[in-house]
Design goal:
The chain has 5 helices and 7 strands. The protein is of the alpha/beta class and about 160 residues long.
């Protein structure tokens, strides 16, 4: 049975890259939210409630890290909530996957650097996987070959953390 996970990503920059990862199919992701619905939810102040609802029944949060992922308000919220809810937490760099125009982007900062747990940076606890490969096909294959292991490792790490 596929693990149920929550995908966190910067919608504006990385939607098409996130779709590529979600289509790997070895995991069951959270619901996709159309851009218009996201904007309406932001106007109503209901984003946090939606995110919290999406975490129900999920065992891990996967932060898909692009050029402008780190420091975004809702991604930070998702990272914080995943940790608070004791979900597995892992990052995967996606900057070398093509966007909807076929272009890769620059690597962004580690989004876990902005958090501390027990006096340590979260980035020293949580894995940020940088898939090898010189082209997008190799990067996608690397993610596909490793995503289940990364999720299982993140779940194990989180369930054993502080015990």
């Amino acid at each position: 049975m596929a693990r149920r996970v929550f995908f966190s990503f910067h919608f504006e920059n990385d939607y098409s890259r996130a779709v590529q990862v979600r289509q790997i199919g070895s995991l069951e992701g959270n619901l996709e939210l159309p851009a218009d619905d996201w904007e309406a939810m932001k106007r109503k102040g209901a984003v946090a409630r939606w995110i919290d609802g999406q975490f129900l029944g999920r065992s891990c949060a996967i932060v898909l890290v692009g050029a402008r992922t780190a420091g975004r308000k809702w991604i930070d919220y998702e990272i914080k909530r995943a940790w608070q809810l004791e979900k597995g937490l892992v990052g995967i760099r996606i900057h070398r996957l093509p966007d909807s125009n076929g272009r890769p982007s620059a690597a962004g900062a580690n989004p876990f650097d902005g958090f501390s747990v027990d006096g340590r940076r979260l980035s020293s606890i949580v894995t940020l996987y940088d898939p090898p490969g010189s082209d997008s096909r190799a990067v996608c294959k690397s993610i596909s070959d490793n995503i289940e292991r990364l999720v299982e490792s993140a779940i194990s790490m989180r369930s054993n953390y502080g015990r």
